[in-house]
Amino acid sequence: MRLAWDMVRHRFAAFAGTFVAIALGVGVVAGSTTLWASSQPETPQRLSATPVLVHSPSVGDNDDGYPEYRSWTIAEAAALTGRLAALPGVTAAIPDPAFYVQRVVGGRPTGDPETALTEGHAWSSAALGGYRLSAGAAPARPGEVALAGPAPGSRIDVLTARGPATWTVTGTTDGPGFYVADATAAALSAGVRLIGLTVSGDAEAVAAAARSAVGTDGTVLSGAARDRLEPESVTRIRWLGAQLLIAMVALGSFVAIFVVASTCALSAAQRRREIGLLRAVGATPGQVIRMMYAETLVVAVLGGAVGVPLGALAAPLLAPPLVAAGLEPAGFAVTGQPAALAGSFALGIVVALAGVWTAARRSSRVPALDALRDAAVEHRAMTRPRWILGVLGIAAGAALLIALPTMSTDAQSSAMMGAAMLLLVGAALLAPVLIAPLVRLTTWPWRRGATGMLVREGTLTGARRVASTAAPVLLTVGFAVLLTGTVSTISQSAGADEAADVPAALVAAPDGVPGLSDAAVAGQPGDSYLSSHALVTVGGTTTRYGVAGTDGLTGVVLSRELADLPRRLDLRFPDGTTTTLPVTAVRDDAPEAILLPRDLVRRHDPGALTPAVLLDGPAGPATGLRVLTARAYVQIDIDEEGEIVQIFLAVLLALGVGYTGLAVANTLLMATAARREEFRALRLAGGGTSHVLRVTSGEALLAVATGTLLGGTVALFCLLAARRSIEEEIGQAIELVIPWGQNVAVALVCALVAVVAAGVPVLRARAGSR
């Protein structure tokens, strides 16, 4: 270990690339895992002052993997509240009906539409969050409200599922939400799903007694278990953020291994004489392997020691951008996570040792006679394993692309990405073979000039060096073209396909609201439906289905997918009531799984909203309504998803380009520094520093151009295959969309880094010779 420390200390420049790669990799992992560990479910602030909470019973998980609950009816909730209030230690049992309400200012709804779905509450439930009146009195009659901000006596415009209304503010609260009289809340909400218990004494003892009293009629939560009540919308935001952080950790670790492996491989090639000398004085292959592992371990420890605090400092700085991007909930704060930092440090060591494995094995086979070699000509770049793996990668990737049209829709995207990875890795492995013809082709116009000849011949002679530079560029440009092209093409084709399914030229759509109110829909010319849901029990299994409330129905109409259900359905509505209805028809064009009469849906779901109106005439003005073309309407959801995807792309491309720049810079710095004798001979032949810089810059640009051409070509073939599959699936031609600006920027960054990295050793050598 002492020898390894001395080698690293005296030749740190040779290990600089590994050090930076590990430091940055550990920093990325430490910051990402700290953010992830800090973003755990929390008890909603509105319920934080209540130690024991009783939730309505679960009936399983919905399609998104979240628990699905049934509501208590108002009568069931009242009976259960009475039983709970009688328990020892319970000071109050408070039901919490919730409903949709948004404030309207200047004729426009305000606030987050998703949050507004449960912003309305009964005044008695304000105690669940410990909220109090700072002025005024509690609401007691319909049309009265208490909320934060407006002074008592003022009047505010609001929007509910029924339509616009004007409420009188009776009190000002010290917490968020709209609080109305309990009877008003019961009329506006669809049943009750939560009862809070305020207690005196031991909360856990009260919780145990509540479990006995509730039985199977609900779930009692206390302590940390209350975190399970975090809203699905918040949980989804955390999930999206977690996906980005996981991708950052995976990419950071993978690319760090790649950079360490390429750096160690190049370093080992440059140290063949040194290693040969060690073999000549008696070093065994095992000792050579242990020496390289020890050197890398020293560098990894140093890099981890820098990366851990770097990540810990970066995590709090990244929290606000994540919240602004909708990838973490409002109020998210980073907390100290020692386990995440320790794990990141350990992962850095594992990554470094994994990266040096191949180089150490190859170095152990260096013969002692290499200590006597003086030729600078590189050993053959293509080994037998490299040939085999490269050819297999190309063949497997091509086979997947050919088979793409025969696969299911769900499997096609994964198969296409797998094919692209195989082709890109195969091209990177075969790069030394492909470089020669590409170099001759690209340098043909400058073949007669002195600089062009030197660039061409130097590149052909140093195929291993050029391949080491081109490989990271190939992978980065290839994935950049593939990912940006895939996202843009799918977005374009999805919009055209979905717009064709909308049977109207114009659509009355929500504007700043989660859906259209009854007042907004009334009198609009066209077709619409109320969007709700119902729980259907068949053979002991309960499943949630989407429900559309439409005019002109007398029974239950099923979509074609549910044609096998019984002819009489047991339904449980959002307000908790149950009924059995006959199935009267099955339709192929049903907008939801189940169609019911509109007035029936409204009766059992007071908060139901209308998604849109398919217009067949001029639309009338209404609060929260705007008129869009069919294409613009379907583009709303596509753009919402696209914003998240673009954030993912930007972060992943930034990480990829950053590591690519590091790999290119490290390779060229090491390789150019090792060519001092070659450049000295060029100067003795009459070339100046500017001439040498032109040669090194030309070689660097040629390597980047080679990697860009190979990566772009592979990605283009994959995109063409993907477009063919999409066209066959939707039955119409689509345009292949490639954001050239982003991809050209990626290539230009790589080129700039390469030119600078190739020029720095030349300028340093010139300064040192003065």
Automatic annotation (TrEMBL):
This is ABC transporter permease. GO terms for cellular component: plasma membrane. The keyword Cell membrane applies. The chain crosses the membrane at residues 12-37, 244-269, 297-319, 339-360, 387-407, 419-441, 462-483, 647-674, 700-722, 742-763. The lineage of its organism: Bacteria, Bacillati, Actinomycetota, Actinomycetes, Micromonosporales. Belongs to the ABC-4 integral membrane protein family. InterPro entries: ABC3_permease_C, Macrolide_Exporter_MacB. Its main location: membrane. PANTHER family: ABC TRANSPORTER PERMEASE YTRF, MEMBRANE COMPONENT OF TRANSPORTER-RELATED. Signal peptide: none annotated. It is found in: Cell membrane. Keywords: Cell membrane, Membrane, Transmembrane, Transmembrane helix. GO terms for molecular function: transmembrane transporter activity. The keyword Hydrolase does not apply. Residues 247-366, 652-766 form the ABC3 transporter permease C-terminal domain. It is a multi-pass membrane protein.
